[in-house]
Design a protein that fits this description.
76% of the residues lie in helices and 1% in strands. The protein is built from 23 helices and two strands. A two-stranded parallel ribbon has the order 1-2. It is globular, with a radius of gyration of 25 Å.
């Protein structure tokens, strides 16, 4: 429904507005968007691939620590990282202050310093918090490869670098493309960071065209261009992974440790420093900056506006988690019980929501819900003389709906993975003992699926809590979540006042990251 709504709104706009969007707005925003995606993808690939190879294939000081720590930047939303970096690299921030003290400068006119509010700054911010997508995918692939292929290549006379580039990288290509696709989709979806850093992307153009220029059809036309970007990314990812399947040799943990390359001398120090750099930039800097501000504002934890925003965030996130898990469980169970083409197609169709950027989804959700509200209100006015107002689009329901659509992929994937671990013989044994299909589901499958269901609900809850791009378009008047509260304060150059809400978001985001780290601990 959201996709059809966007297409209908875009086609129903006036010709003059469409011409202005196509000739002026889209060309100005497409260039920065492509550069942002290309540069962010390059930087994240560099750090993600090399750090994954180091922790999976080499032995150096603190390797086991960095194996988990390299995931930590996932807990930092890109807009929070942008606000923290803006303060960190500002004229009054610690970096420029130390720079002036070291070289004896007393005025800004005496030296030049890279501007963080630029395309380069946006690439730095995005890369710092998004590289773990590439790292996680590549690390798993390098571990699955074991050391057999690399050892065979060495016996044939290949050196370490040649083995890395000619054997291990080609074998990891499917994982690299999956990670890069996720990175680029997240970069395309961002609005808080690019707006704060002054980069005019397609996402910001949708927001600006709709809310600041009052052109809904123009915003929908830009949204259609973004949908082409998303489809293009998915097609490139699938084309790159086509016929790129490799059999892997399962290696035990002890054997894997014994087969790792033992780095010595300066190489050990370089490997440790390389793995420490992205953790410091992507996690330590934002947390230290925002936590420092928050510690000086502990009284804000009881402020009414923060308490209201926290309640709105919890209620919306819990509702979205409940709905997403419910629908995802139905889809996953249908695929398990029926194994039909219809169930498989429904599952694939539901996963498309994650690929739709939040601003695009906001337009596609709001207009149909507003139409339903107006139809219900008009019918009740004419029939009973009662005005219902905006029951759906004027409440938090619109945010819940958008979050359910966007994050149901996470829930469905987690629950489906849980079902995959349960042998189908459980269902058969239960049915032969006289249980019906519903009784089997209730007394056999559900108890075994509880960990997967709770994990799925937690993931959707946390992602909805951090969501900004759709929430900022769909929130009703005087309805703030923690994310929009931070956004409003940062928009008024009050990043320090937003620090308390930001720390709450980061603390919540650490929960799924810790779960991922524990799973890495079991496999490292």
């Amino acid at each position: 429904m959201p996709i059809f709504a966007i297409l209908w709104i875009a086609l129903s706009g006036d010709t003059e507005s469409g011409r202005h969007v196509i000739l002026n707005v889209v060309p100005r925003a497409t260039g920065p968007t492509l550069l942002l995606l290309l540069l962010t993808g390059t930087v994240t690939a560099f750090f993600g691939i090399i750090s994954a190879w180091l922790v999976a294939s080499c032995d150096f000081p603190l390797r086991r620590f960095f194996s988990s720590a390299l995931v930590l930047p996932l807990a930092i939303p890109s807009y929070l990282a942008a606000y923290a970096f803006g303060e960190f690299f500002d004229y009054t921030g610690p970096v420029q202050t130390a720079y002036r003290q070291v070289f004896g400068f007393t005025s800004m006119r005496q030296y030049s310093f890279p501007e963080i509010r630029s395309l380069g700054g946006a690439v730095l911010v995005m890369s710092a918090v998004l590289y773990p997508y590439v790292y996680l995918a590549c690390r798993s692939m390098f571990l699955m490869q074991g050391r057999t292929a690399a050892d065979v290549a060495r016996t044939l006379g290949a050196g370490p670098l040649r083995v890395f580039f000619r054997v291990q990288i080609p074998m990891a290509r499917p994982a690299i493309m999956v990670g890069l696709t996720l990175v680029m989709m997240e970069a395309l979806n961002d609005i808080g960071a690019v707006e704060y850093l002054g980069v005019n992307t397609l996402t910001f153009s949708i927001y600006d065209t709709w809310l600041n220029r009052g052109s809904l059809s123009g915003a929908a036309q830009i949204a259609c261009v973004m949908l082409f970007f998303v489809v293009g990314l998915l097609l490139i990812e699938r084309a790159a992974r086509r016929r790129q399947r490799f059999a892997s040799q399962k290696t035990t943990a002890s054997a894997s440790d014994a087969l790792r390359l033992r780095l010595t001398g300066w190489r050990r120090l370089c490997a440790t420093a390389f793995c420490a750099l992205p953790v410091i930039i992507g996690f330590a800097v934002p947390v230290i900056v925002l936590a420092g501000f928050a510690l000086r504002r502990l009284d804000q934890f009881l402020e009414p506006r923060l308490v209201r925003a926290l309640w709105h965030s919890v209620s919306v996130s819990a509702s979205a988690a409940l709905l997403a898990v419910l629908f995802a469980f139905v889809l996953a169970y249908a695929a398990r019980a029926e194994r039909s083409h219809l169930a498989s197609a429904a599952s694939r169709l539901s996963s498309l929501g994650y690929g739709i950027p939040g601003t695009v989804l906001g337009i596609g959700v709001l207009i149909p819900l507003a139409g339903i509200d107006n139809a219900v209100d008009g019918w009740l006015r004419s029939s009973l003389g009662i005005s219902t107002g905006l029951l759906l689009s004027g409440t938090g329901f619109a945010i819940v709906y958008a979050s359910t659509v966007r994050f149901m992929t996470m829930a469905e994937g987690t629950i489906d993975a849980g079902f995959q671990k349960l042998s189908p013989h459980l269902d058969m044994a239960s049915r032969t003992l006289g249980r019906s299909g519903f009784q089997t589901l209730r007394s056999v499958l559900l108890p075994n699926m509880r960990p997967a269901v709770l994990t799925a609900a937690l993931l959707v809850f946390i992602e909805t809590l951090k969501e900004l791009s759709a929430t900022i378009l769909l929130r009703p008047f005087n309805f703030n979540t923690l994310a929009t509260l931070v956004y409003e304060d940062a928009s008024r150059s009050k990043v320090q006042d937003a620090s308390v809400a930001a720390i709450i978001i980061i603390a919540a985001g650490l929960i799924p990251v810790i779960l991922v780290s524990r799973s890495l601990d079991a496999r490292r």
